[in-house]
Write a structure and sequence with these properties.
Length: 926
């Protein structure tokens, strides 16, 4: 609309100037009634009429030159216009009669290098040269050597000299100063014609450009892809600016290169290519998709890094070097960049070698003017527009204004497309994220949840949208916790922490949460985004791991304590046996000795339980059927649980065998059944189940200690009182019990845990308060069951039976002394030592045979196994019997005796010691 007002305003000014011109003509007629003045006036009227009657500039200028010829009668005349500092003729008459070649007028003349043109342009006044031979500023050119007299007048548009009206004569003195004003009058008519034509062309151009821009805006807003936008922009620019070709590239900053994504050739140009059309088509297809580095050429580096446009003018090899124009760069909206004239190198299109395919294409279509403009999004160059014209100076400043506007519009469209793609990627990422994502308004009301939230919490989006986040409260955090959280995020800070929430079904889940405030353009908090990573599994595994570590530490402690107690109990037990041998049953002291013996046995059983928990007791595993063990115990179990509890056994057929110590397996079943009975004081149902199961990676990932593979399951379930989470977390710890003090020591389930762990199994407890408990025990599958062997019986021991020599090695002096006394009392010859090194010395000093090495397993500096190995080097036939309070060593690896190893666990009685020694000595060597 503004452009139209400007055009109307300029037309009004033109009309006013025409009126002034007519007034001048009238005055001239009044002053001079001479024939020449009347001719001049008539010619000016016709020139003025031509100006107002047509918008065809060439036609109007031809009519003006006709009237100039009538008035001045010169040999030739022309109109030259200035563009880019060069003047070139646009219309002329008469020069062909003097042999001036037609091609001469296609060469532009640099105004600054032509004194006559420079004087007229700078002074703004006509110039009359009566005799060119005598004028010092005249430029003599062979093609115009015939000109002897010359007159020129400036053509001005809006106070700027845009060209010249020239008349030439072959006769010296043909023009004189009186010709200046009439010639200027015709030049003013030409000025009006040029300005009028330019206004019209500008209006048409602006309307065309505005229409193109509107189409670009509309298409950019409608498209969601970058390449269609760039393709449409190139088409519109070629049409609006009458260009030869337009192309666009996209920058891949990560790869450090750009890729040509589209190029569009003018259909009018394509129709004139003729035989070259196939080659140009091939060249067009070759540049689309080509990539090129962002580095390697200063101008294009500036285009990318500094958002500086690049302008290039082709060099005409036929021109003198001083008239060649080369590429130049600079910054600024709509800037016109001067050519670099300091170099006289002859070059074509100044494009880097890596753009050779583009250069070849441009040369094929005859492009001589180039421009490259950056497309900038958020301060970074994301692409470039390339434009080419087949005419010199084909990318003038007013055209570049449109290109800049288009570049800005395209940059905005690209920013929108990129934002849309980013949002799409973010949406996909959020929708597919394994973490829960919740968006609330500024007051905490939920406005969005992702599928992970629905999957984890059990709530659908429709159930929570509009509701406050309070619906997830678990009761595990106090008010101060939530108050601190809310104060943090409302203070424009990010809150991070661990949060326990409640699912729709009432179960709890734990998550690591980050809550961030979201701002509008004014910086106000408008919403909050909460991202919650479900760590329920990690927390469970962490708790299991800590529990496992605690149980392991407690097991080590129990084993160490048991070892020390075993030594003490051994002393008490052997001492009691020796005391019994010195008194008879009628002695009043006999009763006290019996109480000591019974107490020692109870203490021994307690120590065995501790060793079982610590996985340090001696076991003798066998391959057996779990179903058979359960069946053999069924009658005993029914008596244990009583009549008010119903016992059900669901034993799977074809059950896989397991490898475990039978007595330990019975101990596991008995302890679990007793625990189930105590959980049902009012009666209930106790179920024993067996099954073949395969533990997979999913189960093993959630249960510390579980191993992937085939297992046999023993499940013992009750319908009793159940356990809460706190009790279940400590249920396998030794001495932990919920029973009254007199009802148990709290070692039953800890013993089960130790046995299962020692046999490479896994145990897990499932329980809910008021709904009962299930203990699931998994043992690895073993080979086929072994046939049962005959029961072992120990021979009776008589006093004085022993005759062999025994080397006793024990670091505990009291134990050593009692063992030596018992052996000596039974006829054995005894050597003693308190360490491995001393035992080697005693052996070396004893020249006779030594039949048996009786050694403690764990001793300072040298253990029993090392002593045995060194002693057998000199006494290869010596037999060995180990004694130990625990077996966590190389001899009894992981509590399982290696084949051929004899070991007597502490505490032991004198009878047990004598029986075991006799058995070891009586075994015939193989």
């Amino acid at each position: 609309m503004q452009d139209n007002r400007d055009i109307h305003k300029s037309q009004a000014e033109l009309i006013a100037e025409l009126a002034t011109l007519r007034a001048r003509l009238t005055e001239m007629e009044a002053r001079d009634a001479g024939h020449r003045q009347r001719t001049l006036a008539e010619a000016l009227r016709r020139a003025t009429a031509a100006v107002v009657s047509s918008l065809d500039l060439d036609q109007v200028l031809d009519r003006i030159l006709d009237q100039v010829n009538i008035v001045f009668g010169a040999d030739a005349n022309n109109v030259m216009l200035i563009e880019g500092g060069y003047a070139h003729p646009v219309r002329w008459q008469g020069y062909d009669r003097f042999g001036t070649p037609e091609g001469f007028w296609s060469i532009a003349m640099r105004v600054a290098d032509t004194p006559t043109l420079c004087q007229i342009r700078d002074g703004g006044r006509p110039l009359v040269v009566p005799d060119t031979g005598a004028y010092p500023g005249w430029v003599h050119i062979p093609e115009t050597a015939w000109i002897s007299s010359h007159a020129s007048a400036p053509i001005r548009v809006r106070d700027e000299v845009v060209g010249f009206l020239m008349v030439d004569s072959a006769s010296p003195g043909f023009f004189d100063p009186s010709d200046a004003d009439p010639l200027q009058a015709f030049a003013d008519s030409a000025s009006l014609a040029i300005e009028n034509a330019r206004l019209y062309e500008e209006a048409v151009r602006r309307n065309r450009e505005l229409a193109s821009l509107n189409r670009i805006v509309a298409a950019s807003a409608a498209s969601h892809e970058i390449e269609p936008i760039l393709d449409m922009v190139c088409r519109e620019l070629v049409s609006a600016l009458d260009l030869a070709i337009a192309g666009a590239s996209v920058v891949d900053e990560a790869k450090g290169e750009a890729a040509m994504v589209t190029a569009y050739l003018s259909p009018d140009l394509a129709s004139t290519l003729g035989e070259d059309a196939p080659n140009v088509a091939d060249a067009m297809s070759s540049i689309i998709g080509m990539t090129f580095p962002l580095k390697g050429h200063p101008a294009f580096e500036a285009l990318i890094e500094e958002q500086t446009p690049v302008f290039i003018e082709a060099v005409d090899e036929q021109q003198p070097a001083t008239e060649k124009r080369r590429y130049s760069t600079g910054g600024g909206h709509g800037s016109q960049f001067p050519a670099d004239e300091r170099s006289d190198r002859r070059e074509g299109l100044a494009l880097p070698d890596y753009l050779a395919p583009v250069r070849d294409l441009l040369q094929q279509i005859g492009a001589v003017s180039l421009a490259f403009l950056p497309l900038v999004v958020e301060g970074k160059t994301v692409g470039a527009l390339g434009l080419a014209a087949t005419r010199p100076h084909g990318l003038a400043a007013e055209q570049m204004d449109l290109v800049w506007r288009v570049a800005g519009q395209v940059s905005g469209a690209l920013a929108r497309v990129r934002l849309a793609k980013t949002q799409q990627r973010l949406t996909i990422a959020v929708e597919q994220s394994a973490d829960s994502v919740v968006i609330t308004d500024a007051h905490g009301a939920i406005v969005y949840v992702n599928p992970a939230f629905e999957r984890v919490t059990g709530y659908s989006s429709s159930e929570v949208i509009g509701r406050n986040m309070r619906l997830l409260k678990s009761g595990k955090h106090d008010r101060a916790f939530y108050r601190h959280l809310w104060q943090t995020i409302t203070s424009d800070l990010v809150w991070t922490g661990r949060l326990v929430d409640r699912k729709k079904d009432g179960s709890l889940f734990t998550g690591d949460v980050t809550i961030s405030p979201v701002h509008n353009q004014a910086g106000e908090i408008v919403s909050y985004v909460a991202v919650k990573h479900d760590v329920t599994r990690e927390v469970q595994l962490e708790e299991q791991f800590h529990q496992s570590q605690k149980m392991e530490a407690m097991g080590r402690l129990a084993g160490g304590i048991a070892h020390d107690f075993n030594n003490l109990l051994t002393i008490i037990q052997v001492s009691t046996w020796l005391l019994q041998r010195q008194i008879n049953r009628e002695d009043p002291r006999w009763e006290y000795v019996q109480r000591i013996q019974e107490t020692v046995e109870r203490a021994t059983n307690l120590i065995k339980q501790l060793l079982s928990f610590g996985r340090r007791q001696i076991i003798e595993p066998q391959t057996l059927s779990l179903n058979r063990v359960v069946s053999d115990l069924s009658r005993m179990l029914q008596r244990i649980i009583g009549e008010d509890i119903e016992l059900a056994a669901n034993l799977a057929p074809d059950l896989w065998p397991i490898r475990v110590d039978p007595s330990q397996m019975e101990q596991v079943i008995m302890n679990l059944v007793v625990n189930a009975r105590d959980a049902m004081p009012d009666g209930g149902m106790l179920t024993i189940e067996t099954a073949n199961v395969v533990i997979d990676e999913a189960y093993a990932a959630f249960h510390v200690g579980a191993r992937v593979g085939e297992h046999v399951l023993l499940a013992i379930s009750d319908t009793g009182v159940g356990m809460d989470d706190q009790v279940r977390a400590h249920v396998f710890e030794p001495f932990y019990t919920t029973k009254e003090r007199e009802q148990g020591a709290g070692l039953g389930l800890s013993t089960v845990f130790g046995v299962v762990s020692q046999n490479a199994g896994h145990i897990w407890a499932y329980s809910e308060v008021g709904k009962g408990t299930t203990f699931k025990v998994y043992f690895p599958r073993a080979g086929e069951a072994e046939p049962e062997g005959p029961a072992r019986t120990l021979p009776l021991v008589e006093d004085g039976q022993g005759t062999e020599t025994i080397l006793v090695v024990e670091d505990e002096a009291a134990v050593r002394e009692l063992v030596v006394r018992v052996l000596a009392a039974h006829g054995y010859r005894v050597l003693e030592a308190r360490s491995g090194s001393e035992a080697l010395r005693v052996s070396g000093q004893h020249s006779e045979s030594i039949d048996l090495l009786l050694t403690d397993v764990v001793m300072p500096h040298m253990n029993g196994a090392e002593l045995c190995e060194q002693l057998r080097a000199s006494r290869p036939g010596i037999r060995v019997l180990y004694i130990s309070g625990y077996t966590d060593n190389a001899i009894a690896h992981h509590g399982v005796l290696e084949p051929g190893t004899s070991l007597l666990p502490k505490p032991f009685s004198a009878e047990g010691l004598l029986h075991t020694i006799r058995r070891v000595l009586d075994v015939r060597p193989e």
